[in-house]
Amino acid sequence: MGKDTVHFKCHHCGHCCRDVICLPTPWDVIRLVRETGKNPYEFLEFITPDQISEVAKSDPTWLLCGGKRYMMALRRFEHGCCFLHPKTLHCAAYDARPLLCRLYPFDLHETRAGEFKSFTLHSNVGCPRHRDALVPTAPLYDLYLTDRDHQEDYMDLVGVFNRSRARDKQICDFIAMFIAGIARPK
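Above: the chain's sequence. Below: its structure in token form.
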């Protein structure tokens, strides 16, 4: 286990962008809009429980609309994430990518008291997990803490959306709750 460093180097196999569904927070979406100029209604989609079995039904970020559950995700095409270049396998939004992408494939380990213990690579990661470089864990832990704060904000926003009883509520209205100045799609 890596308390100070983890052995890993990305060799751009594309696994994380092809085979993993990215669930950004609203903060991630705002950063993507600011950095790429892309419209979130074009790069986001809302998936249902049958499309992502890895998220528990009790997860507080399920959006409720029209009697169904939805999870906000980066849109995916045949080749994977909408930001993945199909030939180079490089991310077109790399500098603005969601924190989840930045933390993948690292797995945080904490003590029973919730204190940082170490990072390792996720055991069920589908990439080759090349170990030919050292990644310092301090910046990873800082990202983890930021993501944890963003997840709390996300849960609060989902709670507000889910409590809304508007008759004409649509799932894409969730985006409008945190993105100002972007026209709703027709």
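The chain has a mean pLDDT of 90.
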